[in-house]
Batch of 2 targets.
Target 1
Amino acid sequence: MKLALDAMGGDNAPKINIDGAKLVLEKQESIKSIYLVGDESILRKACDAAGIGSNPKLQIVHAPEVVSMEESGLAAVRQKKHSSMSLAVDLVKSGECAAVISAGNTGAAVAASTIKLRLLEGVERAGIVSPMPSVHGYVLVSDTGANPDAKPSHLIGYAVMSAMMARYIYNRPMPNVAVMSNGTEDCKGSEFSKEAYRLLKMLDEQALLPFHFTGNCEGHDLFETELDVALTDGFTGNILLKSVEATAKAFSHWLKAGIKKSPIAMISAIGMRSVFRSIAESMSADSVGGCPLMGVNGVSIIAHGSANGTAILNACRMAEGMHRHNVNDRIIEAMARINPALHGLH
Amino acid sequence: MKLALDAMGGDNAPKINIDGAKLVLEKQESIKSIYLVGDESILRKACDAAGIGSNPKLQIVHAPEVVSMEESGLAAVRQKKHSSMSLAVDLVKSGECAAVISAGNTGAAVAASTIKLRLLEGVERAGIVSPMPSVHGYVLVSDTGANPDAKPSHLIGYAVMSAMMARYIYNRPMPNVAVMSNGTEDCKGSEFSKEAYRLLKMLDEQALLPFHFTGNCEGHDLFETELDVALTDGFTGNILLKSVEATAKAFSHWLKAGIKKSPIAMISAIGMRSVFRSIAESMSADSVGGCPLMGVNGVSIIAHGSANGTAILNACRMAEGMHRHNVNDRIIEAMARINPALHGLH
């Protein structure tokens, strides 16, 4: 497969993207070509410095503009037609590449992918699927920010898209899918979550769902139960995701502060280093790499702004897996079965 | 002040409530009387066993019924008129006690307090205010579950109630208050959060707010910035709160699992014990004690189901502080200034 990398995206761009490309060249043979999109002279120099300047799998595509992290996503797509992000998405739109990866402005990545690639047949809205570490592996939360004002029916699409991710990328053939709520009982929830629950239950009773619908779930179920997919609107999902990331950071902060206060703890911490490192790795967004924006015609992975080279490698691997398993075709097929019943229900 | 304790509430009731009452008797002189509400013979024995059976500050009020953790809150209030929770709230309603504390069924505590005590003058909806530890102390999140389908105007009341908690209980004279959103820019948010933002901004421009409105905040601001109050609907707030609690638990789980795997780490962990203990304490709900249900006519504190005696003591101390500072009167005054402008805006 061929892959477009928004080389100017991310807090430490282009370095992280050059590092990532180098790792892909070394470790992921199935990726036949990487298009690095960004300022040609900067990228040329950076590739030479990294010792990959003459690698035949690498192509540099010049993009004179860059979308900053602060810009409005929609405005950036409309006004900066020659940004590295826009041109990277264009490579997927034209069919030259199968996937685009960007660690840049999330809003702009969502807008560019949705506007340029358009929605998959049968999908109402695109959604971001965020893999979060749990004690059982990963739980996929969707949507985490593409669509803050979701309708209940949008969650059906998120459920199918996330379930296909769980099946093909996280090796969960019949994933457990639940609706996030403020209580697990059927009667609990907001009007929004209760309606989503009702739609899923009716589709489940007609045996139309390609996953196991388990009902409502609460915040703690994300970590503690054998849950594979948790569904919510992009507003709640985004707040949830950032709060969980921040809790993990706060925990580290308190740990470091506590260690500094006590000489015995400081010495003991040395013996704990491998444990701390393994927790940091399992909680780090870098080991996941990125979150796919699902429901668009193509593969679009949004990496964290603070991504490093390893994160970019992992995001590229996720893209390769989604492409190899034809995840988008599986979504189209599932939605074709579901939609007649779903639209009959409305 | 006099205080009613739902002695049958909590996963480990009545033990935790007896433990809590004993600690209050030992450490909190300003609480002149504790009414333990629950099964008289069980409570009598438990008090005797704890050595507080003949303490003149303690009164046992017999309640033949108990609300279980699984019951629907509203149904429990309607059907079990003689539950320990209902009768404890009745003691506040009649004016006999100034505050009620329960570690029982949250939905039932919200329903009983709202129905029996009624709303404070000028308050549209009651909300739960949850103090969460941050690197700067505490941030108060409201609402965390009383009202899953909030209207934007309800957040004005939550803002005032939480700000008064921040001022009088957490010693923040001019608290920083923000609306939770999926981005900090003015334009970010759901239709709901954007309307709440607009209302707060207009009230702020008229200098009617008894706090500093700082705009939007994201999940990570809860821990990292000098934020005192974060506003959201009860659906999002509940998911957020439980997810954060679960993240902290997952972190401990990974830490313990990692330590078990390595003999060096196991030995080193002994030297880190004081650090782990201090983190566990600062992240534990027990050090906060409980979350006030604010906006009702009286003081009602909801403790965690897994509360221990220390949590009950701290919940009682919170109630004492709210009563001593006349927090409810301060809320009524602030709402009286705000409401004409707020209702003019609609």
Note: DSSP finds 13 helices and eleven strands in chain A.
Target 2
Amino acid sequence: MPYDIDETHDPELESWVESANDRETDFPIQNLPFFIAQIPGYDQVLATRIGDRVVNIAKVAAHYFGDSPALQDLVGPTSVALYDLCAFMTEQRRELRQRLIALLRSDAAPFEEVDEDYKFMYQVDEVTPVGWDIGDYTDFYASVHHATNVGSMFRPDNPLLPNYKHVPIGYHGRASSVVASGMEVRRPVGQQAPGDGETQPTFGPCKLLDYEMELGFIVGRGNELGEPIDINDAEDHLLGMCILNDWSARDLQKWEYQPLGPFLAKSFASTISPYIVTMEALAPFRCAPERAAGDPEPLPYLQSEYNRSHGAIDIQCEVFLASAKMREQGLDPIKLSRGNFRHMYWTVAQMLTHHASNGCNMQPGDLLGSGTISGTTRDSRGSLLELTWDGDPFAEPPVVVPGTSRTPLKLPTGEERKFLADGDEVIMKAFCQRDGYRRIGFGECRGIVTPAH
Amino acid sequence: MPYDIDETHDPELESWVESANDRETDFPIQNLPFFIAQIPGYDQVLATRIGDRVVNIAKVAAHYFGDSPALQDLVGPTSVALYDLCAFMTEQRRELRQRLIALLRSDAAPFEEVDEDYKFMYQVDEVTPVGWDIGDYTDFYASVHHATNVGSMFRPDNPLLPNYKHVPIGYHGRASSVVASGMEVRRPVGQQAPGDGETQPTFGPCKLLDYEMELGFIVGRGNELGEPIDINDAEDHLLGMCILNDWSARDLQKWEYQPLGPFLAKSFASTISPYIVTMEALAPFRCAPERAAGDPEPLPYLQSEYNRSHGAIDIQCEVFLASAKMREQGLDPIKLSRGNFRHMYWTVAQMLTHHASNGCNMQPGDLLGSGTISGTTRDSRGSLLELTWDGDPFAEPPVVVPGTSRTPLKLPTGEERKFLADGDEVIMKAFCQRDGYRRIGFGECRGIVTPAH
């Protein structure tokens, strides 16, 4: 299964790509995430990254993998799509990982020595990472701490709805507006609730623009319509994970979301980081999902032995902000929060299994978002809605106030923020660290807010 | 604009395809809907239907449209995709319509006389209509009568939420599970709320399976991310309309929908009819949207002169049911309801403009659903949730009871239905009829319920 630990996770493995051996890099030889690279003068190609280098998988496969029955699908074509990889079974993915590592490890011959004219590898700044065509995008709500924070703002006496600890709550998102890291995000325009004493809503630029720090997981093999995915098979249907910024217009959301859920408050943009970190690379960071005393047992279709002991993943998630003025003054982005994906109530396997439990067909490349990743402490809150809110339902005694009392963040320029201003850049990072293993990173997910139309 | 009436709507126009001249046909020469036809031994082709015949548009274009600058995009390739048509501007769509009518009208030479070996046309039963690749699917909630019925079941004192008459409420749907008419629909499995006195929900086959009679509208030209669509341009971005059955699992929906809206209750299947009836063909059936005394003015971005006078469309919508036993006994389907799309609170232009108002990018082929089409009378209710419910918020005095009191439908076999049973076939029809114009029909949208997995 993709979560097995094997010799490819050995922390002593090093590469002849020197930059991959830096203990701080996100991209050691143990990582090898997949992404789509636009190579100048070429088509978009399926690639992997190691250190500060990018490897063209089709070129490598054509030259080195001809003897591998498992990898024949990669050998023939001059370019390989993400969807070819999605179709791979676990054993094929493992073989690809093992073969790439065998080629890149320090005791192998560097590509340059094999054939100087054959371009297997690029410097990372020679290529542009681009997104892939996402068929459907679904966003979950899997952090019980996020749900409790948000619920406390609107229903102080009853923050968590009765279904929360039984149903991995999610909703269909908009696939067309999922954009690649680095693309500007235009502040949306929309309806806002009537003011006090007014009867007509207003229409104008969003005043409460927010980010949500999430992780996305990407479907590899799909399932046929009408055929559910057993939880024991769920991870076999996942290709890997990325960072997801689920930008949110809170004022639009508040006015529109009853009774059918968030719509235009979300669909103006969702930004993903380019690198798909494989489930295989994440294997050493698995851990048990957290449960509190009195939490109900999940229904049987959401339970497995592995999920109980290792369903969660220890991934640190950090959010940074740089205002336009900070960038002008050459100031570094400031860190707003640090959360951890291990605190989610529902696991990736549970979310995927639940999604397909009614027979809904998942398709290769589909994106599933985790929902905002928040913890119980103030500095782990994954959105400004929570971060600048004065309440704290996890304090002793709980400080549960309605949603109006907010303390702004102070920026080093003297600026203040309750929500995002035009020109603000939001930078999200995620990485895994654990004694005895190499750091596995996701890179960055970036987006600058531009003024409304 | 696509809603102008011109000589192509002349009811006296007849075709050399005799079956198109039947006054009862859905497909006279004035209709010419687009669809994707699977022709045995060929690829899927873009086609139109007239009477009981199907016309291969690429073949006709290559042979007849070489002199038309507007239609050059159709002339070169051996097959033409729906997306080629989506890119057309209004003038190109009008020219295609005029040219097809000129070829098919009774004073033109039938195709057979031009070239016997060149296959322009098929019998309708020689081809299989298939769906197209839908990028994103959005479902609206545009019938105030449906919203009032449903709201009355759960909130008798306050059926309609404060945002309803300002916001065209909608939510993102699941595109992957949109299926073509005729495909079986498997009863979904899912979580249902804990019973009285219980604390754990149950997981099993849906007990309250329902249909929703909707119309879908299909995006032609898209818009760039960040660029809204002005309401005066909205219809120019629509290719046409089809029938949509938004199958719904009411027990799953009730338990899962708070706070983020319907999810698995909808995503197991949505069925569309194959023919895309063009906005041009629907032009004679435009009418003013209905407003009651005291209804608020829409916000300016949702207003246009044309929309006020002609934004609605008079389309009759009928739902029929045949149980397995009825089919075994050779009994005709029974009509469950007849509604009309003209009673919707929001128009197609308002829904599309609202959807793009935050900058969300619409893409060619995207499907937008209207929401259940219900009127104020019991026989116009577009779902079983409403049809078997004993309440009637539009009666004098209103009969607004909670959602538990239901009178089952009686079938001619003696069977009864509050919701759908396995083996039930739901058949939806839609058509326009108005004095002085030919009937324009949508054909049928069919689906049989098969037992849960």
Note: The longest strand of chain A covers residues 440-450.
